[in-house]
Amino acid sequence: MALLTLREVEKHFFSQENVIEAIRNISLDIDSGEFVSIIGPSGCGKTTILSMIAGLIKHSAGEILLQDAPITTTSTDIGYMLQQDYLFPWLTIGENIDIALEITKTKTRQNQAYTRELLDQMGLADREKDMPSELSGGMKQRVALVRTLAAKPSLLLLDEPFSALDFQTKLRLEDLIHETLKEKRKTALLVTHDISEAIAMSDRIVLLSNRPAEIKRTFIMPEELKAKSPLAARQQPTFQDWFQLIWKELENLESEIA
Asked: pLDDT, tens digit, for every residue of 86-96?
């Protein structure tokens, strides 16, 4: 059963001079527990799609449904993790997590215990009283994930959350987030420019065209990759074949812009 449904979704931006068609006729179903990545040429509208799903901006046409209910505004049922951690520098790690519960009005002892359990799973149980400035970039992104999961959203939106990290940290964090989401049976939609990341983490990859963005092609990852952790998937013999296939499709789209 689809947790998230987009039906013929379109988005237009208006100015005094003209109308910009950003998204055209996007239809997509994402099942509960599925991990889907969106890739495409730079500026094609990937983040715009996430913003519409999150209820931050309104779509111009079509329907966006979460569990068959229209998305009309922001909701605690949708978590949004961005490129930057956006931790409050004047609050401790524990306070940063708790403020997420306060904002969503879900601060209970049970939920606080849940977030501390998550913090422990992230290997940061002993850093609860530290300030963000005392943590590395990868640690802060782990805290950001805990904060995002604090309200127990059914859908997690990931907007290039690993892009600012060094490669080794990025690989470790991919594995950790993938394992955590699978264990918690979360549904995730990732926007990324990194083809390898998309292949390693996803059940499906959606390739968007140039603006106005349409779904150009969908790639279903084989079981031998889906069943592995992201790091282990990168070691599989078929991984490079998938990379070359998707890279060629994306390169063809990029050449249309040039």
From this structure: 899 999 999 99
Closest CA to 42 of 193, 148, 242, 252: 193
CB–CB of 217/64 below 8 Å?
Answer: no
Q: How many CA atoms, within 13 angstroms, populate the side-chain half-sphere of residue 91?
A: 13
User: What length does the chain have?
Assistant: 258
User: Looking at the DSSP assignment, which residues form a beta bridge with residue 20?
Assistant: 13
What is the CB-side half-sphere exposure of residue 247 using CA atoms within 13 A?
10
The number of beta carbons lying within 10 Å of the beta carbon of residue 255 is: 9
Does this model's pTM top 0.90? My answer is yes
Q: What is the CA radius of gyration of the chain?
A: 19
| CA–CA gap between residue 81 and residue 220 (Å, rounded) | 24
Q: Is 205 helix (H, G, I), strand (E, B) or coil?
A: strand
Q: Residue 9's beta-bridge partner residues?
A: 26
Give the chain's domains with CATH numbers. 2-77+153-257 (3.40.50.300), 89-152 (no CATH)
Please write the tens of the pLDDT for every residue from 18-29: 888 999 999 999
